[in-house]
What we know:
- The chain is α/β, with parallel strands linked by helices.
- Helix 4 (168-184) crosses helix 5 (190-203) and helix 6 packs across helix 7 (271-285).
- It is 39% helix and 14% strand.
- It has helices at residues 116-123, 128-131, 148-164, 168-184, 190-203, 209-231, 271-285, 296-324, and strands at residues 2-4, 7-10, 20-24, 30-31, 34-35, 50-54, 63-66, 85-86, 100-102, 105-107, 240-246, 249-255.
- The longest helix has 29 residues, at 296-324.
- It folds into 2 domains: 2-208, no CATH class; 212-236 and 260-324.
- It has a 4-stranded parallel β-sheet, with no helix packed on it. The protein has a two-stranded parallel sheet with strand order 2-6.
- The mean pLDDT is 86.
Amino acid sequence: MLLLRYATVNLNRAPLAAPMALQAEPLPFTTRNGTLDESLLTADTYPPAVKLASLKRVDATRLILTDIGLDGCQFTGAFHLDQIQIGFGCRFAQPPTGWRRRGVLPARWSPRKVLAEEQHSRAQVVGREGRRWPAGPHHGAPERGAGPEDLAGVYQQLRKAFEEAGNEPDAADFSYGEMEMRRRDRQRPRAERRLLWTYWLASGYGLRASRALSWLVAAMGVTLLLMMLFGLPDDTPDPQSTGTYGAGVVKVTTKTPDPALTLPLRKRVTAGRAEKATLVVVNSVVFRSSGQNLTLPGTVIEMASRIGEPVLLGLTALAVRSRVKR
């Protein structure tokens, strides 16, 4: 075990033949003569944290990290990262903060743990988005740095390491990073990247409950409005019976007319119609039929909502579970 203070460790190509633990010591070291003098190490140029600079070409099977800064660590090129043990006190980098513009809409990056190499890779992007990320040592030469295809594998292995340790919330962050790198990997089929983009937009890869819930509320609101405008008939159609008599026999035929909507648009948005539409929407969320008489457009709208809205509800539940599971 190495107990460290005010240190940056570079394990590049280090042969770890035995278990090794790196841990930041919170208190000054003591000797027989008392506490070591750290007055020369507390200047602004010597941050008190312990950082790990590189794990390139290192077998991380027996490596244990505790309270180590990993916000600048190079993980690409390490072996067996899925078996590394990373304690809760270790610190990773974060995406840029604040709001930005994505087209004409405001947007912001979701808070999560990211690798320094992802920061450097995103900084290579031309334009305003790239300038928000810190540049790496190979800025301007993307062929020398790690690309999305490399980082996807690193995120995958680190996700497995956190899952093995039972740290599901941090594993969710690395699962998000893995999906982001797969989506940005131009070597993957376009259909796969478009599917990942849809998954990201709908629920943040099943990891952003607020996004999925927002889409669910929006979908319910749109369904409610469409039901009032086009889905509900004027009135509940009453069965109509007709009969014929011949040769001493009476034949009665009962038919229910098709629901019809003839109201002008200004009279379709009422409290009574909103109540009926709400019943349709709520039943659609739990994948049930409302039993309401609907017009043909209303039947199509209900079928679409019974498919899409339960999916969004499931994605919301999945995202919540990934954050609270231990």
